[in-house]
């Protein structure tokens, strides 16, 4: 890739830098096209405030894993006319501006319609590092992994509270970049408390079987949640609460709110004290 580190290398480096600084990584989610057709200012403000990686949502009309806040953001984006091409262009724009590793968050149907090989190549061209595709079960990931791995792209897979222990290990072994641990049953939301007791047990079990970073998402919404997640695992993922933080705002007001919200969460990623 002409001397440019692969997406997988950039993701690994982001986790390594956070660990070397004695903290967990912070991974916010923003939906491309919300609240404006271009979301670059919000992504770059999140980066400046301390985000280590960023999930960039590609809006889709049937988001099975998305709670009401994220689904509403996707719907606003779709109503504004945002396409998968627009989301990829946004990824390219912020990558060019020096944003941290960007991962697409999308569903399999948009990828299928776009074309799997074409999508993988477009991620590389955009300078993005991979994708999270929550509606694809383990058994159906080989075609995506076959398209991603030769291009140095990551495919983090999700482990739910209901996932049996043996299957969780299989998922972790097939995951690349990091393992996405879902903190509780249901869809994404900032309104239900994460079950850190269960999470701690699952993380401890997986630590013995995989060297991959472990990231906790779904319901992580406050500095206290981030602090608990980063003391248990390697990263905290925050989506709905961030979108709620700039609800109804636009332009510099929205990006300013993103910056202050991310800065508060970033201070909670430290493992000392």
Please tell me the overall pLDDT.
92
> Got a strand count?
8
Please provide the ordered H/E string of secondary-structure elements: HEHEHHEHHEHEHEHEHEHH
CATH topology: TIM Barrel
Judged by helices, strands and strand pairing, the structural class is alpha/beta
Q: How are the strands of the biggest sheet laid out side by side?
A: 4-3-2-1-8-7-6-5
CATH C-level category: Alpha Beta
Share of helical residues: 40-55%
Number of domains: 1
What is the CA-CA span between the terminal residues? 42 Å
Radius of gyration: 17 Å
- Uncertain spans: 186-190
| CATH superfamily grouping | Aldolase class I
Oligomer: single chain
CATH hierarchy: architecture? Alpha-Beta Barrel
Describe the biggest sheet? Answer: 8 strands, parallel
Overall spatial form: globular
The number of helices is: 12
> What portion of residues belong to β-strands?
5-15%
Overview of the molecule:
- The chain is of the alpha/beta class and 273 residues long.
- It has one domain (7-267): Aldolase class I (TIM Barrel, Alpha-Beta Barrel), CATH 3.20.20.70.
- The chain is 47% helix and 12% strand.
- The protein is built from 12 helices and 8 strands.
- An 8-stranded parallel β-sheet has the order 4-3-2-1-8-7-6-5.
- Helix 2 packs parallel to helix 12 and helix 4 packs parallel to helix 6 (116-126).
- The longest helix is centred in the last third of the chain and has 17 residues, at 251-267.
- The radius of gyration is 17 Å and the shape is globular.
- The model is unreliable at 186-190 (pLDDT under 50).
């Amino acid at each position: 890739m002409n001397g440019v580190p692969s997406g997988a290398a950039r993701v690994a480096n982001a986790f390594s830098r956070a660990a070397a600084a004695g903290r967990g990584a912070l991974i916010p989610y923003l939906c491309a096209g919300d609240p404006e057709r271009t979301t670059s200012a919000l992504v770059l403000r999140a980066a400046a405030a301390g985000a280590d990686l960023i999930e960039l949502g590609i809006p889709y009309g049937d988001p099975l894993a998305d709670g009401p806040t994220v689904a509403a953001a996707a719907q606003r984006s779709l109503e504004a006319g945002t396409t998968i091409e627009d989301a990829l262009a946004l990824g390219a724009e912020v990558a060019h501006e020096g944003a941290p590793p960007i991962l697409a968050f999308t569903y399999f149907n948009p990828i299928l319609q776009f074309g799997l090989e074409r999508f993988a190549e477009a991620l590389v061209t955009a300078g993005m590092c991979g994708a999270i595709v929550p509606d694809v079960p383990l058994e159906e990931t080989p075609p995506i992994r076959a398209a991603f791995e030769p291009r140095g792209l990551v495919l983090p897979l999700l482990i739910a509270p209901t996932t049996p222990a043996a299957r969780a290990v299989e998922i972790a072994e097939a995951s690349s970049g990091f393992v996405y641990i879902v903190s509780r049953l249901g869809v994404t939301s900032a309104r239900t408390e994460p079950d850190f007791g269960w999470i701690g047990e699952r993380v401890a079990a997986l630590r013995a079987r995989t060297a991959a970073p472990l990231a906790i998402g779904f319901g992580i919404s406050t500095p206290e949640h981030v602090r608990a997640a980063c003391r248990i695992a390697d990263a905290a993922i925050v989506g709905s609460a961030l979108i709620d933080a700039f609800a109804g705002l636009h332009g510099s007001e929205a990006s300013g709110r993103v910056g202050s919200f991310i800065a508060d969460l970033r201070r909670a990623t430290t493992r000392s004290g």
